[in-house]
Amino acid sequence: MQLAELLNDWPCTVKGSVRCEVMRIEDHASEVTAGSIFVARKGKESNGITYIPQAILNGAVAIVVDDEHYYNSAKLTVPLIWVPNTLSFLAYSSAKIHHFPAEALTIIAVTGTNGKTTVTHLIGQLLQRLKQNVMVIGTNGVFVNGKRSFEHYQSLTTLQPKQLHALFHEAVKTGIRYVVLEASSIGLHKHRLDFSDIDIGVFLNVTEDHIEDHGSLENYKLAKQILATMAKQIIVNSDDVICRSIGFSKKGKRSFFGKGQHVDYFYQVLFEGTSYTTCLVQYKDEKHVVHIPFVGDYQCANVLAAMSVLTQLEYPLEQLCHFSEELTLPEGRFERIKNDNGLDIIIDYAHTPDAMKQLLLAVKRQAKQRVIVVFSCGGNRDQAKRPKMGMIASIYADVIMLTTDNARDEDPTTINEQIQQGFSSTQVFHEILDRKQAIFAALNEAKVGDTVVILGKGHEKTQQIGKIQSEFSDHLCVSQFLHDAQKARNDN
Ligand SMILES: CC(=O)N[C@H]1[C@@H](OP(=O)(O)OP(=O)(O)OC[C@H]2O[C@@H](n3ccc(=O)[nH]c3=O)[C@H](O)[C@@H]2O)O[C@H](CO)[C@@H](O)[C@@H]1O[C@H](C)C(=O)N[C@@H](C)C(=O)N[C@H](CCC(=O)O)C(=O)O
Ligand SMILES: Nc1ncnc2c1ncn2[C@@H]1O[C@H](COP(=O)(O)OP(=O)(O)OP(=O)(O)O)[C@@H](O)[C@H]1O
């Protein structure tokens, strides 16, 4: 596309010629190739302007900035463009260079503090059962018809627009009709979803997370609310106070789901087994008894959210209720590890106070004996949630094993001290910073009938300590422990 055409409808001023061919949009200088335009944006750690010489060396045909002082003073060998906001320009130009592919797709965006990955995957599975081609994009990666694809993409909850619109383009090209994606508050705030032509926005819950990025809960809520403005229609969890208020302020089509009165999609838990829940689901004058193969009230809400989306897309609720019996959770979400040791071992991605509460509530309700919880909190992230998570763990756990969970630049011992502030005075706990040893110790401590819950990392395959990311998987640790225990039994 000609640079002139790319800039056509966008406020900007230009120093240099706009008669050059643009092949791609890039905001990382090392990824610039011949024909790219480099958008030099200011980040959390560095300023893209620093990397302009590298981008030009790599073949950038033009540079885009939003820094007026730089624009006025710089003398470059390639055209220099000033735009009011580089982040929204990144979204606009990424969409335009691919000819706005989102417009040809049905895009469903799911937001919430917890449950985004789960609900996007549930929507994806239901669409697949209806023989629809679907792409799911989020924390666990990109999935096409349930199969992990584009594995080289960075694993962000909400991808950068340069990747997002390339995926939309690919979806159109390969006959995919539906794209289901996660909308993180950071992604929304940083304009990553601008020009994504979102058809349905789903609001699951707004509790506490990423306060260090947004500055306050109010700002966090405002970031989430952006989705309500963007989406043509929204589906809202009426049981969540903040979501409900976002729902009421929506101008345009909106539906509510939940357990309370006056909702469009109603559910009620009738029975909870050890691995499934029976619910009553009601929409207009239809009533169905549904068997959901998960436990926890929050999982019923997740399934209902997914069914509400499909119903709004005009698929029959009765069929969806039937399919819901075969749903599965994404990797690392309430993942039970089979074993011959008589233990209930659960790996789960809960890393916020509310996720931890919902999860442990479900675990505690069916625990036969003691509950042993292994966890810590991430470093360089919101500190206020640490004692809250400590308090929640202390309410439900008989024994707590404090360890390390992506401590990043912080001292894990200090993180754990902040967690301990929430413990009851009688709480039994140990601290083993080496996460593998902590998991081993918890499994060693457990007796037949006990439940061991390993929280915070779920599907993750790495652990970041300092600046170093090392391979790490809770799943592999548990497998190794169980394998060693089996071998020891065989040897005796
Ligand atoms: C907070 C945040 O949005 N961080 C992302 C962001 O970093 P940043 O804006 O701070 O950028 P920076 O590193 O300071 O660099 C500034 C500019 O210089 C460029 N640069 C930088 C270094 C270099 O060598 N060359 C170069 O050109 C960068 O590409 C960027 O354009 O842009 C980087 C490059 O695209 C991302 O890798 C980085 O995501 C990191 C990995 C991250 O972890 N982000 C998390 C916090 C995040 O976005 N999470 C949300 C929410 C998750 C949730 O809800 O649980 C998500 O949607 O994933
Ligand atoms: N509806 C819900 N309400 C509260 N907690 C939930 C809900 N759904 C899932 N959880 C908890 O949150 C954890 C993370 O779930 P999931 O990955 O689906 O959320 P997410 O919003 O995508 O998280 P992230 O943004 O951190 O990637 C689960 O492992 C579970 O413990």
From TrEMBL:
Q: What is this protein called?
A: UDP-N-acetylmuramyl-tripeptide synthetase
**Main localization of the protein?**
cytoplasm
Residue ranges occupied by any Mur ligase C-terminal domain in the UniProt entry: 332-458
Task: Report the domain of life of the source organism.
Answer: Bacteria
**What the protein does?**
Catalyzes the addition of an amino acid to the nucleotide precursor UDP-N-acetylmuramoyl-L-alanyl-D-glutamate (UMAG) in the biosynthesis of bacterial cell-wall peptidoglycan.
Query: Ligase as a keyword?
Result: yes
Gene label:
murE
The cofactors named for this UniProt entry are: Mg(2+)
Q: Where in the cell is it found?
A: Cytoplasm
- Top-level EC class as recorded in UniProt: ligase
The organism encoding this protein is Solibacillus palustris
